[in-house]
Amino acid sequence: MNKEQITLFKDTMLWKIENPSKGVWFKLIGHTGDWDITDEPAFTSNHLYIPDDQYAVYRKAFVEGKTIQFFNDLYDTSKPEKTWVDLTTLLAKMHFKPHQIRIKPEKALIKVGDWVINTKNKHVFKASKVSNIYIEAQDPLPANYVEDCEKWEPIIGEYVSHKVKDERWIICRYTEEMWNFSGIAPKELIYGLD
After folding, report:
1. What is the DSSP letter of 105?
2. CA contacts within 13 A on the Cβ side of 112
3. Does residue 54 contact residue 15 with C-beta atoms inside 8 Å?
4. Among 18, 27, 101, 183, which residue has the least CB neighbours within 10 Å?
């Protein structure tokens, strides 16, 4: 093994030394096929190597060119908004909880009835009309350009409006157990919801 290989695979090698009973994911560079796992990695310079830890899915996605994001309140509590922030590099030792890290989702297609956020002016609204250029809100506000909008989806721990059994809307924190509830809306819209 040469110095270049040691430099390139140092973090994975150290992880393997610390975790001898676990495997290492590997893939030929430039190959579009699946990853394989081995207990005895060769660490050749024409392969990619990823530790088989709880973050392996994120590490593999990252080296394949996908964007990995973390929930910004982990490191910067000075920001009032809670959003997903792109990681520019994967840390050798990650300490994220499962709900605090994700592969950035593809931009969701917005359809009538979806909650939408305009990323430029932070206006949150329910889409009443969708075209290739504009998304119109149900309330009398100007139309929004499609490229400025994202489908709003609640983040775990975020305050949301939630319709309870007696058809009242309340504000509560969004939890993992609420993912399939139909009566979830941005908290800013609790007033004026039917």
Report:
1. P
2. 5
3. no
4. 18
Tell me: the pLDDT tens digits for 115-170?
Answer: 888 888 777 788 888 887 788 876 666 678 887 888 887 777 888 887 777 777 77
E strand or H helix at 15: helix 3-18
One domain, residues 21 and 91: yes
Domain residues for the domain of 124 are 115-189
Cα gap 167→172, rounded to integer Å: 15
Residues 1-55 have pLDDT tens digits of 678 778 878 888 988 999 999 999 999 887 778 899 999 988 887 888 889 988 8
140 falls within a domain = yes
d(CA 136, CA 126): 8
User: Can you name the residues that pair with 173 across neighbouring β-strands?
Assistant: 159
Across the chain, what does the average pLDDT equal? 78
